[in-house]
Amino acid sequence: MPKRHTWLEDAQGLLSGVLLMALAIQFFKQAGLLTGGVTGLAFLLHYTTHWAYGLIFFAISLPFYLFAYRVLGREFTLKTFACIAGLSLLADLLPRWIGFARLDPLFASIIGGLLAGVGILMLIRHKASLGGVTVLALYLQQRFGWRAGHVQLGFDLAILACGAAMVSTPQLLYSVAGALALNLVIAINHRPGRYMGM
């Protein structure tokens, strides 16, 4: 049986994962791109309402806590709540600390996708997530053996299709590239027979 993480290892892993995801969001937002999952739904609402991204992300994540508690347990749900709250705060604070004078959208999509994938992977390995689609993907992997990265990619592409009318065709294609980069990280590194942390 694998050795459990200490509370200090969990704290470091969760904080690192949230920071990487917050940075990924800045790359996507600065380039005017979309992404999948609850993060992508928050982008769609942010672009249409101009409300604070972090507040939207936090609010639309709330319904997933009950599902997470029922299928993945109390520890996972509490850690996930902490990660979502942290990301909601950092997503709105980070623009005060970092900006891009020049940002190529293709680079933004790939680096944003890789950062998000690594961040999510770190959270998964410390028994947490950013809610929403990731919770469902992890459940389906545990229950049926479906790869979490493949499940998440399917949902992500559906969300990107919903936002297709909001961005230009190049931005949509860059957004799809980012979703592929993100989900390849998860599909390759989080699968049965590998260290999964769950």
UniProtKB/TrEMBL annotation:
Record's bilayer topology term: Multi-pass membrane protein
GO cellular component, one term: plasma membrane
Matches recorded under PANTHER family: UPF0750 MEMBRANE PROTEIN YITT, UPF0750 MEMBRANE PROTEIN YITT-RELATED
Major location category of this protein: membrane
Compartment(s) of residence: Cell membrane
Keyword terms, alphabetized: Cell membrane, Membrane, Transmembrane, Transmembrane helix
Top-level taxon in the UniProt lineage: Bacteria
Xref: InterPro entries: UPF0750_membrane (IPR051461), YitT (IPR003740)
Name of the protein: YitT family protein
Residues annotated as transmembrane: 12-31, 51-69, 76-94, 106-124, 144-166, 172-189
